[in-house]
Amino acid sequence: MNIIIDVAVKDLTSTGQRPVSTSDRPPLTNVVMGGAKVMNHLRTNIGKRKLILHLQMKLIMSILICCPSTGLNSMEQVHLKYWFPDLTTLWQDLGIQYIDRGLTYPKVDRSLSDGVFEMTVAANRLTITMHVDWEFSNVDFNGWVLTAVTGGLDFSDARILQSSAPTSLIRLTSTTNVISVNWGGTPFVANDVLVIGFKYSDISE
Length: 205
Hints:
elongated
């Protein structure tokens, strides 16, 4: 779009005033070019604003898609220990870890180099998946204890949601910050799953 400004020339001879000469008018070429520069500047600024808005919307959508809100603080920590053959003998200490929207202990129970099972801890449940066929020795205590190091997790209502093995053989106890499972004598098959549900803040199953 070109903006053309013309200056009308009046015949002021009768009043004694000098008429506006052609040389007094701003060059038409300069006016047109100036208008074009203004329009280009406007187009550039509008384009930049649209691009920024587009990038902001993409960022917001990616956050909503990739990181759905669970109410889980990424700084929540848990500590997993395996005890055998009683609760005074530590068989394996898997350390304190951040949950951060999903934590997996890949090698639990050092009876095997790759672990007998893996455990994934999320905002309101933990999932155990067996690596191999395995029957846990029936001793005083053969199992694990998961402790919430920080205060956001609440294990007080922990319960078995799913189990491939007989639940009657799995002794689950829990307090506000501790889940304990003694499964001595329980047989499992490779890829069997045990799911235990609990609360996180106001999130519950």
